[in-house]
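SAMPLE LOG
Freezer: B-3
Tube label: C17
Construct: single chain, 90 aa
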Amino acid sequence: DDLIRIIDIKEREAHRVRVFLNSVDQTEQTLIFCARQLHALAVRDLVNQLKTSTDPSYCVRVTADDGGLGEQFLREFQDNEKTTPTSLTT
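STRUCTURE (predicted):
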């Protein structure tokens, strides 16, 4: 039962990410709020798999677990001069 539930959740999240990506301008910066840190990791991976951008760091996770790297990603996200859009999962 757990395996079926996990597969169902992945399929549902993939659908939700597809709907999200189709409804936003992927050239704009985006902040995605997630339920938990592991959820943010899964959403980040799905966004990077389904995005139209060729930037490998298009979507990054910024959570308490990400420490200095997360802080660096957050600073880059806040840089208004940056031309490459980024999605943050938090």
